[in-house]
Amino acid sequence: MTEQEIVGVGPAFARYLGGYRDVFRQDRTAAHFDTCCRGLLSDLPRKSIEPIALASGTTVRTLQLFVTTSAWSFDAARIRLHRFVADTLADLPADPVGTVGVIDETSSRKWGITPQASSGSTWGAWARSRTGS
């Protein structure tokens, strides 16, 4: 991507996140959602609440409370996301290969030291890759 394209991503991402504003009961809750999403897409080596909060200037406890106690409509957010993906795929030009979507939540290493500290399948896959088993 060019520098101009990278700069252009910020406003586009803000518009995208704005489409989810009404699934939250409070504006400040929606702002914490924005903070978490930006943190997950950042170059932070760890994508957990504490580093995201610290990098964004938000208190850690505030972001922890957002994740654990905020009231929002999961169903409305999921439906909106599914509609966004369907609309985006429908707008892609036809090609001989077709369109394949892959959601890979295992792309980031989990930092727990036991299977119980993180997703067992992710941890197991990472551990096997390190030990050759």
TrEMBL record:
<feature type="region of interest" description="Disordered">
    <location>
        <begin position="113"/>
        <end position="133"/>
    </location>
</feature>
<dbReference type="InterPro" id="IPR038721">
    <property type="entry name" value="IS701-like_DDE_dom"/>
</dbReference>
<dbReference type="InterPro" id="IPR039365">
    <property type="entry name" value="IS701-like"/>
</dbReference>
<dbReference type="Pfam" id="PF13546">
    <property type="entry name" value="DDE_5"/>
</dbReference>
<feature type="domain" description="Transposase IS701-like DDE">
    <location>
        <begin position="25"/>
        <end position="112"/>
    </location>
</feature>
<protein>
    <recommendedName>
        <fullName>Transposase IS701-like DDE domain-containing protein</fullName>
    </recommendedName>
</protein>
